[in-house]
Amino acid sequence: MTPVKDQPGPGSQQEQSELSRKKLLDAAAVVFAREGFHKASLQAIGEEAGISRGSIVWHFGTKDALLEAVVERSYLSWAPEFDGSESGKPGGRQAIVRVIEAHRRFIEEAPADNRLYYALIAEVSANEELAERVRKMHADLYLRLHGYIKEGQEAGEISDGLDPEVGARLVLSTLAGIGHLVILVPDADVGPIYREVLRSMESNLAI
Question: What is the rounded CA–CA span in Å between residue 181 and residue 189?
Answer without folding.
Answer: 10
